[in-house]
Design brief:
This protein is of the alpha+beta class. It contains three helices and eleven strands; from the N terminus they run βαββαββββαββββ. It has one domain. The chain binds fe (ii) ion.
Length: 226
């Protein structure tokens, strides 16, 4: 049977089969004052604009310092407990890069779609999202992906050293969405926390809403850890 010639260099990634409690953690009813924090997030006025409004990779808009230091301390207590890490911190982002830790992110259905990526290994080991929309649309949580080759074979899902991000690991700046197979997804539920290894290929599954109050609101966090 005729087989088309293979490209000289096929991008490869390590495949790590995701295990809850090792690679990701989900906790419902996470914030004791989720209603208040959700209202606080929607009421913010100090938004920074991302894609498609500005030349940024990240979508929609973001507002910083959503949780108070006391609220952050409770979040970090939980992160340390479930991951077994002793120390969490945010490294200084290199010039031109921004670490959007503890920010509200609001993204509507017309602003972006799924964009599988890994977070810079230089900047974080764990990332987390708390869903803060009261009436989320189904299929708009967080998804994890693995490579899918044109012949249907499935590949890896992890950015491993010495690479810091997917672009370095794959040798291309971007792959089309069809190059990714959704391995599994976590549904968007109000006040659900999902924490995950930031080196695993992930994305928002999708976004929803057109009006400010109806869009997909999340709180985002990034940590280095040891
Ligand atoms: Fe990410």
């Amino acid at each position: 049977m005729f087989e088309p010639p293979k490209p000289a260099k096929v991008p490869t990634l390590n495949y790590r089969k995701l295990q809850e409690g090792r690679d990701y953690w989900v906790q419902d009813n996470f914030l004791p004052n989720a209603d208040e924090i959700s209202e606080r997030a929607f009421a913010r006025t100090d938004w920074e604009l991302g894609f498609p409004h500005a030349k940024e990779f990240w979508p929609g808009m973001r507002s910083h310092n959503l949780l108070s230091p006391a609220e952050m301390a409770e979040v970090e207590k939980w992160v340390k407990k479930v991951t077994g890490m002793k120390k969490l911190w945010q490294p200084e982002a290199p010039a031109g890069a921004k670490l959007n830790h503890n920010c509200a992110q609001l993204v509507g259905e017309n602003e972006s779609g799924p964009r599988p990526h890994t977070d810079s290994r230089k900047l974080c080991r764990f990332a987390a999202v708390i869903y803060l929309s009261k009436n989320p649309k189904p299929g708009c949580g967080t998804s994890f992906y693995r490579l899918r080759y044109p012949n249907g074979t499935l590949g890896g899902n992890q950015c491993t050293p010495p690479h810091n991000n997917l672009g370095e690991a794959l040798g291309v700046s971007k792959l089309p969405l069809q190059a990714w197979h959704e391995d599994f997804s976590v549904e968007n539920v109000f006040n659900r926390m999902i924490l995950y290894r930031a080196d695993l290929v992930h994305s928002a599954t999708n976004y929803f809403g057109v009006e400010h109050a109806d869009k997909r609101m999340t709180a985002l966090f990034f940590w280095q850890a040891s």
